Amino acid sequence: MLPMTQDDGELDSLVRKRIRALRVAQGWSLEELATRANVSQSTLSRIENGQRRLALDQLVTLARALDTSLDQLVETASDDVVTSPMIDGAHGLMRWPIKGDPGMSVVRQRMTEPPPDNPARMRAHPGREWLVVLSGTAILLLGHRRFRIETNQAAEFPTMLPHAIGTEGGPCEILGIFDRDARRGHQRDPSGRSADGDTDTTNRTTPARDIPPR
User: Which SS3 state, helix, strand or coil, does residue 35 take?
Assistant: First the structure.
């Protein structure tokens, strides 16, 4: 066996801690995880405590039992943990790419205009959107419906419905998550104005309140 380097030793320790942390997060005892992974409780205990060599076949089995993958189990932290946003000052927009999924981006935008009156400026594209209002009040036009989204409320909706976003009663800031398809669907119109704040979404939190159209 080749001598273990310092990096190998750090990864070995990280994997053992990760196995235990994932087990505890699931609320499982040593016995429960050992049963799920088809290993003895004493073997699992020695793996977690560093008293037994990590074998590839056992790591694969443990990863499956912990509902993760081998790649995630042995993943190491990258040096570039902190990233700065790409800033579009002209539109009050900040965008961060998600390194773990290059197709995903996070966008923060300050909006000052109400939603468009012209239905032709509403957009539709594949996927779902998620956004949260950080400050102010946003108005979401979704098909023939109109929603008011207050500060700290979020909205999720299928983007195949024509939609647009604007403000009500002053500026607002929104944060959205969207994928590559959503970015294609949010290209700006020739006037340079985004029809819905250039944001997209994927998760659900507090539902917005449905209000009648003006």
Answer: helix
Structure tokens at 168: 């009500």
Angle at the Cα of 62 from the Cα atoms of 56 and 63, rounded to 5 degrees: 90
Cα gap 148→166, rounded to integer Å: 10
Beta strands in 89-161 (DSSP E): 93-97, 105-111, 128-135, 138-142, 145-149, 154-158
Which tens digit of pLDDT belongs to each residue from 192-202?
Answer: 344 344 443 33
- Evaluate if pTM is beyond 0.90: no
Contact 110, 177 (CB under 8 A): no
pLDDT tens track for 120-173: 889 888 877 889 999 999 999 999 999 999 999 999 888 888 999 999 999 999
DSSP tally for the chain: helices H, then strands E: 6, 10
